[in-house]
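Form 7-S
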Amino acid sequence: MSDTAIFPGAGRTSSTHLARTVAIALVGAALYAALLARSVALTPGAFGVDIYDQMWLAFTQGQLDLPARVLRMEGHYTPDGTAYSYHGVAPLITRALFDPFVTMGTLTLAPISLWIWATLGTAFYHAALLTALGPEAGTARLRVTLALTLWFVGPGVILTANHAFYHEPIALAYAATGAFVLLWARAVRAGRLSTPTLVGMAALAALTVHARPHIAVGLYACTGLALLWAVYRDRLRALPAVLAAGLLLGAGGASYLALNEARFGSATAVHGSFDASDIQYGIAFWELEEPGNVRQQGFTEHGRFNLGRVLPNAAFYLAAPPQFLLPGLSDRAADLHGAVTGPRVGFIRIEAPRTGMVFIWAPWVLLAVAGLAALRTAGRPYAGLLLGLGGSALLLLSYATITLRYLVDLWPIFAALALVACARAAQQPPHRQTMRLGGLAMLCGLAVTANVVLVYPKLLRTYDTTGFAEWSAQECRERAIDRGLPQERLSYICRDPLIERTGG
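Output:
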């Protein structure tokens, strides 16, 4: 694929714009590789980096369960100790691609997988913003500022700063949603929804089901609205696209339900419970935290998703002071959030490092505000995208955990509003004062991002005193005996991680 195909707005404007765009992207991709290399070099290791590798090996051998020593607290367990992962299987794509070239189980593919998805996702969003801006609109300064802000003050930095297990499905969903947003922006630029565009949207939505289902809900809604618009405009001519897209959407949902049925015995069961049941969350199964604690009570009494959490969680995600720069203010904000939410919707866990979007993503908050202000004049073509992605954001905001990596799941709605702002800038270029304000916001974002990059890689590591600690075979057996698991199953439950068989 040519550079002009990746960055259409830049390529059609001039060779100078293209060179600058590609240069910034290359430096950004190199930064992501350096951040991942730093995370890999730190000790102790990041939690769960072998889980997807082991999942791939298990699948190729016809198994769905994994050793307890691999999943540990992130396993979801049947009463006899059989361990399953509840996470989606989409990140196995990179394992399928690299399996012919590496001996799976002897090294982890998590860092390279993260790099691929974070880089692709950022490139897709970059291309979408340039597409919304248009080939002739925008000064060189605006284009360079957009590129620098996206690559260095955007989700890619968070994703690659720490290669722990939790980031891979988020990174894949980031890339898939970036491609989805790019397809929408190109459809707006072209003035029509072609069959390849609609089928591509459906395929990306179906893929995201197996990475971040709550993001997929929004992409399904966006695709449904796009299909309705195609039917309204093209009538019977839209039928082939509708049928193909519908089949893909159905396949994504059906395969997700079938996988749940195979793992958990129920198509509608997506994870274990905290209480003893047919499938129980690992942290409760192994009693790695006090049974019946306030977090577990909050989930049990108020649900995993509760709309009563949306406004306080949104306020915290937006405006929480950076924890490691303003610790006193950050603690007071967390205390205020707990005082507001605790009596109404139960305990909400807030993980370090805490920081609000107005600090770490200051320029994107400004662009989102500009997008909101431009909805009347430039927002109509993006209405379906905004509605669907807004729904995904509401789902995340109703969840009972706040953490830095979830900012990436909130990113798509900000990106969609940024598209509207870029479309408006194509009609009316921003004033010099606005550009200066954007530059100051970018400096603020860079400073907070740099601070986060310093501390975030040290979290989610396999420290011995935490629930992330690694288990030896003996430690696993002792835990299983204390849990009262059948003696004859101990060797299977605590078996060694898989290593790919090679040779004849």
